[in-house]
């Protein structure tokens, strides 16, 4: 069964593997298959589910709401996010203005078929809206009981500190950050993680398997396997391109196979277990297009990787690891229309 961890300095426990439906529900995967994946997650003990209003332009929330209908609400932890454009993309259909936040939480609750979400997250930092306006809107949503806790995604260390200061002033439970993090993408380690620890936040990390690269299925010099994310024209191919274009990186990843075998893990399990070794990580988000993937990935829960093996992983990957903290800022558009 999946183990639980506290989220930030709160009393909320979430499953250290969280099921996410980015790039799958409402787009890549048919609804019946999506429901099968959610059921598989529930069967292995996952109770935490992550989505966002922008995924498949709100369709992913609808699919998740249908898949969870009939489950005991108190036994679930449901997360969603706000920032990116939704609907027809009008001038107020994006960002972190009070108008967009209030309208977005109401739409998310309707689609998810619930009275509240456990965690409501700012999907990026909004450079065009005063932070005070954003945090006050979040505070009002918490006080209305529409969200129990608030968090952010891909905020820089400075942004997290500023948000935490306002949250403390407004007495709002600000407890999480959701960044990209994997063996290959460690840009949060030097600045974001220390700032989060100071502020009482922990990480819910996405793409722990580097969009599938760390499964080892992408071989240097070979075309991406048919049906993989590397061939998906709906969005997956663009996200993974930076890894697939680096043949040396792909060769280094193949060097992880003996390590996974020694630990009796698949390469995907090794990658997920690796991010969970970071004490500031509360959960790794896993996605799936087939129920078997959920069942397989669940075996990464509770795995302890010895320090000497962690060091060997570093040796194998070498200088192919991205570490520059400045890369976090590049994920947030300077303007909402970017």
TrEMBL record:
Alphabetized InterPro entries for the sequence: AKR, K_chnl_volt-dep_bsu_KCNAB-rel, NAD(P)_OxRdtase_dom_sf, NADP_OxRdtase_dom
Pfam families xref list: Aldo_ket_red (PF00248)
Keywords: NADP, Oxidoreductase
Residue ranges constituting the NADP-dependent oxidoreductase domain according to the UniProt record: 17-316
Ranges annotated as spanning the membrane: none
Domain of life, source organism: Bacteria
One annotated GO molecular function: oxidoreductase activity
Coiled coil: none
Segment forming the signal sequence: none
Family as reported in the entry's similarity comment: Belongs to the shaker potassium channel beta subunit family.
Protein name: Aldo/keto reductase family protein
């Amino acid at each position: 069964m999946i183990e639980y961890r506290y989220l930030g300095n709160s009393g909320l426990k979430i499953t250290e593997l969280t099921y996410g439906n980015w790039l799958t529900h409402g787009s890549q995967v048919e609804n019946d298959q999506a429901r099968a994946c959610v059921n598989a997650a529930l069967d292995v003990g996952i109770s935490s589910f992550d989505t966002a209003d922008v995924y498949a332009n709100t369709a992913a929330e609808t699919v998740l709401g249908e898949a969870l209908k009939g489950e005991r609400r108190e036994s679930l932890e449901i997360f969603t996010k706000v920032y990116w454009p939704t609907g027809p993309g009008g001038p107020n259909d994006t960002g972190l203005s009070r108008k967009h936040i209030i309208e977005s939480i109401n739409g998310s609750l309707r689609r998810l078929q619930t009275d509240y979400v456990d965690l409501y997250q700012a999907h990026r930092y909004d450079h065009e809206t005063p932070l005070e306006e954003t945090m006050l809107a979040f505070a009002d949503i918490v006080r209305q009981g529409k969200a129990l806790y608030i968090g952010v995604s891909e905020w820089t260390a400075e942004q997290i500190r500023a948000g935490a200061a306002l949250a403390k002033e407004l007495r709002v439970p600000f407890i999480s950050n959701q960044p990209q993090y994997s063996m290959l993408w460690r840009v949060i380690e030097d600045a974001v993680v220390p700032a989060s620890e100071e502020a009482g936040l922990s990480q819910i990390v996405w793409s722990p398997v580097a969009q599938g690269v760390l499964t080892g299925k992408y071989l240097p010099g070979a075309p991406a396997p048919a049906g993989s994310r590397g061939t998906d024209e709906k969005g997956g191919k663009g996200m993974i391109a930076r890894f697939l274009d680096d043949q040396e990186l792909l060769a280094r990843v193949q060097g992880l196979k003996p390590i996974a075998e020694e630990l009796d893990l698949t390469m995907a399990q090794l990658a997920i277990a690796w991010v969970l070794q970071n004490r500031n990580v509360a959960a790794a988000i896993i996605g799936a297009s087939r129920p078997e993937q959920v069942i397989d990935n669940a075996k990464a829960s509770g795995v302890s990787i010895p320090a000497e093996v962690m060091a060997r992983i570093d040796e194998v990957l070498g200088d192919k690891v991205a570490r520059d903290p400045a890369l976090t800022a590049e994920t947030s558009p300077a303007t909402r229309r970017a």
